[in-house]
Design brief:
about 0% strand; 2 helices; mainly alpha; about 70% helix; single chain
Length: about 60
């Protein structure tokens, strides 16, 4: 499923925390910042579902 399950678990935890902080923030800048951080972790988590590309040269 994930290429690195430990990093995926870390990303899932950080996404949940960032979303919670965004929801709890009273300042719009803080909300946007925490939402942006969550988006970055979502992108990283998505990249962990992809099969890495291996380039093999014929010699």
């Amino acid at each position: 499923m994930y290429t690195d399950p430990d990093e995926a678990a870390y990303c899932i935890t950080r996404i949940a925390r960032s979303r919670a902080l965004a929801a709890a923030s009273i300042d719009s800048g803080a909300r946007a910042s925490h939402a942006g951080i969550a988006d970055a972790y979502i992108n990283r988590l998505t990249s962990l579902t992809r099969t890495p590309v291996r380039i093999v040269f014929d010699v």
